[in-house]
Amino acid sequence: MTFIAAFVVVASVVGGLAVFASARRPEAHREARGAALGYLKSIAPRLPFALVAAECLGRLLPADIVSGWIGTGSGMAGVLIASVVGAGLPGGPMLAFPMAIALQRAGAGPEALVALITAWSLIAVHRSMMFEIPLLGGRFTAWRIALCVPLPLIAGGLAGL
Amino acid sequence: MTQPPSFDPHQGEPNRRITRTTTFFIVLAAASAGLLAWRDGIPELREALLHAGELFLYVAPVIGAALVLGGYIQALLPHDKVAHWLGPGSGLRGYGLAMLGGIVTPAGPFAVFPILVGLRAAGAGFPVCVVYITAWATLGLQRIVVWELPFLGFDFVSLRVLASLPLPIVAGLLAASISRRVGR
């Protein structure tokens, strides 16, 4: 159901934007198609392998350790552990979200998963190395990451309330 | 309206059909599948593959539609106006706009970092940039719709979004307290 709802929402927004583009800026259609094909070319070959990897890794995870360390009721200690794991999680959303489902099935609590995803999205080190340091400089990147360190703990703590 | 920054998904990689990142995923999938078959047996692996295939069928249409959405956002977003709205002297209104801007910016790092370069060049301060990047990372609409909703479901996503709403402003205030050390 969620999949169908998500598809309908995305497709309607695409329809709206396409109508807007036709009215205001018809050349946007060509640019949008080029950008979408660019995204597709980078995602399509990887997604099936990423899903298989996440599914198998999830089954390999020892469920008792996962639920013991970051399970429901693990409190701020679980949030802290999950934040550290999230900050070190390699790869983009293709790997991170299937891994999150696997951890959820292995018994991870919601507040720990919130902390994990927040830490991954803010600190993802490989992304900073590839884009942020070359474009914005090491000083900017280092201070920004330092500021972001407490945020996963705040989000995880709020989610546990 | 200026052209959007050009998109090169294989930036810095040699021009081959199978890139390093793809190779990484292939190796990871093969290694984890092999390990699972060795530890838990072939039936467990077959079940894992079936489950992964089912998930692929569910998420592929959403991801496909969302890629078109990302293309339109990239083509329609007025990059020069974004820089103007978040430029120097935008004050608290700048924080709010930066948060909104981060939420609607497309998910890939190839969109957000070039926009940030434009913002810095237009004179945006360090705190505004931090608000923008934090909102993009934690509340970015495209990533929520494409990846998080299909994989983790509405209940979890609403919990995470609610818990993350204060983060961009908290990060911005922290940034304001040290912005002199960063330069601007």
Fold and architecture overview:
The complex is a heterodimer of chains A (161) and B (184). Chain A is mainly alpha-helical. Chain A has two domains: 44 residues; 98 residues, no CATH class. The model of chain A has no long low-confidence stretch (mean pLDDT 84). Chain B contains eight helices and no strands. The N terminus of chain B is likely disordered. At the A-B interface, helix 1, helix 2, helix 3, helix 6 and helix 7 of A face helix 1, helix 2, helix 5, helix 6 and helix 7 of B.
Q: What layout of secondary structure does this protein have?
A:
The complex is a heterodimer of chains A (161) and B (184).
Chain A: H1 2-24, H2 28-43, H3 47-60, H4 63-70, H5 75-88, H6 93-105, H7 110-123, H8 125-136, H9 138-148, H10 151-160
Helix pairs in contact in A: 3-6, 5-7, 5-10, 6-7, 7-10, 8-9
Chain B: H1 20-40, H2 42-76, H3 79-85, H4 91-104, H5 109-121, H6 126-139, H7 141-164, H8 167-182
* Structural category of chain A: mainly alpha
Structurally, how many domains make up the residues of chain A? Answer: 2
Quaternary structure type: heterodimer
How helical, in percent, are the residues of chain A?
over 70%
Into which percent range does the helicity of residues of chain B fall? over 70%
- The tally of structural domains of chain B comes to 2
Order of helices and strands of chain A: HHHHHHHHHH
The amount of beta strand of chain A, in percent, is: under 5%
Shape of chain A: globular
Strand content of chain B: under 5%
How many individual helices of chain B?
8
Low-confidence stretches of chain A: none
Basic shape of chain B: elongated
Q: Largest inter-chain interface? A: A-B, 80 and 94 residues
Q: Sheet with the most strands of chain B?
A: none
What is the count of helical runs of chain A? 10
